[in-house]
Model the fold of this input.
Amino acid sequence: RVADGPLADPRIRQAVNLAIDRQEIVDVVLAGIGGKVGASLFPEVLPWNNADLAPVPYQPEKARALLKRAGAVDRDGDGMLELDGQPLVLNIWTYKGRPALKPTIELVQSQLARVGLDSRLRITKSGSPINAAMRNGEVHLNLQMWNAAPQGDPAYISGHVFKTGTEMNLMGYSNPRLDALVEKGKTTFDPQARKKIYDEVQAILYEDCPVMVLFHKSSVAAAKSSVSRYRLHPAEVYALDHRITKR
Done:
């Protein structure tokens, strides 16, 4: 959440972003085959992907410097930082149902501790309790897996999640430039012009980091050699139809 709490300071958000080793997550949690490190809000499989954005590098020393500039210091010598005289503790929540989420949140906790950021983890049965807790400012970081373009169009997530004041903007993020681009994107019909609009939207989110893209998960499927014409859909795991045949 960026509207209040410690992550309202962009220096602390950037520090968190730089303290996360995304490649370690992909290698350990996804076994190196279940996905790849992400940068753009949209994965490469979608035409809206901003290919100019590079994955945020793992830079713990720069993260420590940003935290120091934000006033976070270890005054009691326990290895964890304090801010304004109070322990700097991030509440990080996720939910059951996605096997990669629990090990990812645990690994992120370990990575943040390396730069002096303490955290408290909670795993709920579903995402709904997290939404309510975020609105109340109880959750600082919410680890989710998103289908970033459920209708294949970039307007959905940018308009519903990141535009100022929308119901799903649980982090309280607001950027007038992004709001204007989202509205412009809705009424722009030329594909190339729309691509430029949503490239800029992604660049703004990349810079402001109200959301931190960790990885784009791949769908991995095993099939017998007798199964033919099976092709994984880029956005849906269970897209089976009559064209799947068995020899």
Summary: The mean pLDDT is 91.
